[in-house]
What we know:
8-stranded mixed beta sheet, 246 residues, single chain, 17% strand, alpha+beta, 11 helices
Amino acid sequence: MQNERLRAVMAAGGWTHAALAAVLDVDPKSVERWINLGRTPRRTTALQAAETLGEDVHALWPALRQPRAARAVSSELVALYDQRADLPVSAFADLITRAQEHIDLLVYAAVFLHEAYPRLNELLRERAVEGCTIRVALGDADSPNVQQRGAEERFGHGIESRCRLALMHYRPLADVAGSELRTHGTTLYNSVYRADDQMLVNSHVWGVNAYAAPVWHLRRNGNGGMFTTYTESFDAVWATARAVEG
Length: 246
């Protein structure tokens, strides 16, 4: 269903897709989807757009009148697992195997992948050869945030050693065309395993090891949802991370 109200308001104000997108810092295709497909942007983006256009946000996007609780279950949520240990490693490997364009891994160590699936590097190398862009961000073992996580999880220096072990596992990929390896020192709120339009997000809970924390499986459904939130978070961490040479 087209959003004729938005189309009319933009036309009256002389707004092109590109001009409005530039003000809102979104892709012009997103504006096109709002108009032609009737998509509803994120609330913060919708509010900014309405203010820019001098319109009431609910007049432009009536769906935003619904209470948040009524839309609590995201259409992007495929499955929710009580803890990471409930997922077989094959679930992560299958996700990577199907990737055609992007593979993004944001973790501190996640050595469970290499331990349970020794062929992981070979699989990632195959995807890179097929044209898939691979980005792996590992925790910097010397980072205060990594060391603090070890203390919080009562894992001590174990997490630091696992970060170093993870770096040893992934380092051979640093020389593979299309694959890039970096280390980061950010506070990791979630581990992210993304393959194209699907993603496994391992939430982190204070004092709980990642294997015992929840995981949600997301599938992108348009723009502006949870999937976009996590991809933008990955990009922000990636921008601060330090490249690792082979």
